[in-house]
Amino acid sequence: MKILILNWRDIKNPTSGGAEVLTHEIAKRWVSWGHQVSQFSSVYPGAKSSEVVDGVQIIRRGHPYTRFIISSVHFLAFIYYLKNFRNKFDVVIDEVHGIPFFTPWYVKEKKVVLICEVADGLWKRIFGTILGTIGLFVENFYLRLVYKNSPYLTISESTKTDLIRHSVSEKQITVLPMGITVPKNLALAEKTPEPTLIFVGRLSRSKGVEDAIYTLAFVIKKHPKARLWIVGRGILPYRQRLEIMVKRLNLEGHVQFFGFVSEEEKFTLMGKAHLLITPSFREGFGLTVPEAGMVGTPAIGYNTMGLKDVIKDNENGILLRKNSPKAMAAAIEELLSDKKQYQRLSKQAIVLAGHYDWDKTAKKALAVIEEIS
Description:
With 373 residues, this protein is of the alpha/beta class. The chain has helices at 18-32, 73-85, 122-146, 157-165, 209-219, 236-248, 263-272, 288-294, 307-310, 325-336, 339-353, 358-372; strands at 2-6, 36-41, 50-53, 56-60, 91-96, 110-115, 152-154, 173-175, 196-200, 227-231, 255-259, 275-278, 299-301, 317-319. The chain has twelve helices and 14 strands. The protein has an eight-stranded mixed β-sheet with strand order 3-4-2-1-5-6-7-8, sandwiched between helices. Strands 11-10-9-12-13-14 form a six-stranded parallel β-sheet, sandwiched between helices.
């Protein structure tokens, strides 16, 4: 089978995230099973216009954001399809990140929508009232009308619920089991002497990194040696804003920005930290939770869409009843003071993390594609 994936970013993009990991993990497995997979994504500084990664042919054109209009990856995907892709694939996967590729308007082949999360309230939180309202309108428009007859792949029951709320039929939606990618020879690291929290994710408002910093400000009142490791990349102006925030709260020496790290270092840092904190306002699926769980680090997170699917309260972590830095700090302090409870959650986190398998993800997604092809 010949499969085309349209996604705003690819796995080698410096700003890629969990969705790109998901996409590449299933794509490379399809290739290993004898299928041909191509991906069309945006360019980034230093990127090759075309290359093969793990057997997946990646073609890069355009900017990831639609505000660049005719130079955006979304518009250039349309142009490139008409010139080079038409009638050459059995199925096209239209991956949605806020704005889709609107493939029902020009792709004649079978189509599948892959959507990790419905942005919904994030539009206004991130872009403000005017642009956020426009974003909400566009999202409602394509979910209710443009893709009304399309099959959907998603990654959590939370997103499935959101899609149904936006008038997508439950019969059209398949929830994929998720996997995690673990470095070879992974070993449990010894925890740091000081209480250490770790935030892992893209540096953006929607991920709640500011709330993570505010949480530490509350925690150090009872644990003066506590510290926060922030692992992830983001645009420079926002990173600088976070650094100014740290200075303003007198947290210098307590907060360390690691930026982008290798997978091996990420798992090492997760293993050394005592707790993963995930104050995200909305997720498709909190991939970092089972990753941290694999090295015995429980998670404390906001009770939000996506996170509530992966944090099993009092099993592999704590799901907060109130989403605030103060409430998160209180839960952290309580768990750090209860060694017996902490060890129980740590052991259970390892057990639950062992259930995640990318092979299962790829097989279920492929079954949906083969059914419609």
